[in-house]
Specification:
- With 107 residues, the chain is an all-alpha fold.
- The chain has one domain.
- The protein has 3 helices and no strands.
- The chain is flat, with a radius of gyration of 35 Å.
Length: 107
């Protein structure tokens, strides 16, 4: 509100335009600085994520090589489980009583 009260109506138009232009330029510079800062932040975070993922992948790969029987058992159990679920769903769909004739009555 103070800015509106203190605004001098008698300011020449050239000074007003120059002031607006400097404000716009200042906002552009601030925006570019914010973008540059965000790019740096994203770059560092993505590098950290890449390093973390690479470390985790190496650990999992080492674990799989160290305990192949464990992983084979896990995969076998998962396969058997999926097979049983598929067999159950197929049998259930065949046993469902689906109407052969549907009559829709309109009033």
């Amino acid at each position: 509100m103070d800015a509106i009260r203190n605004y001098d109506v008698r300011v020449p138009m050239e000074e007003h335009e120059h002031g607006m232009k400097s404000k716009v330029d200042e906002l552009k510079v601030r925006g570019m600085d914010a973008v540059a800062s965000m790019k740096r932040t994203m770059s560092t975070r993505s590098a950290e994520v890449r390093r973390t993922v690479a470390a985790k992948a190496a650990g999992v790969q080492q674990n799989m090589r160290g305990n192949p029987a464990k992983w084979a058992g896990i995969m076998t159990g998962a396969g058997i489980g999926l097979g049983l679920v598929g067999r159950y769903l197929r049998r259930r769909s065949r046993l469902r009583n689906m109407p052969r004739l549907v009559i829709i009555e309109a009033c």
